[in-house]
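Entry type: protein chain
Record version: 2
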Amino acid sequence: MVPPLDYEITPGAIRIRLGEDEYAALEYHVEGGRIFLDSTYTPDRHRGKGVGGRLMSAAIEYARSNHYSIVPVCPFAIEYFKKHPEYGEMVEKGV
């Protein structure tokens, strides 16, 4: 399990610093009260350690605090929500 990681949200991206000049990122855009999770990236050596899940948790928190529904676009986000049906009420279907 990965320890809690701090993240930063900037317009268009949520980033987690993993080391000096090394980040995991989730790129997004907001349109019409929806947040579209466009792509995720975790450096190879950090994959499988829960970093992607932490990015998704940050996106969910951000969506909740801004009253956005979520549209998973990238394959990682789509699979994440399939594995976590407890967030189903936040995910917009058929977009």
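Comment: Helices lie at 51-66, 75-83.
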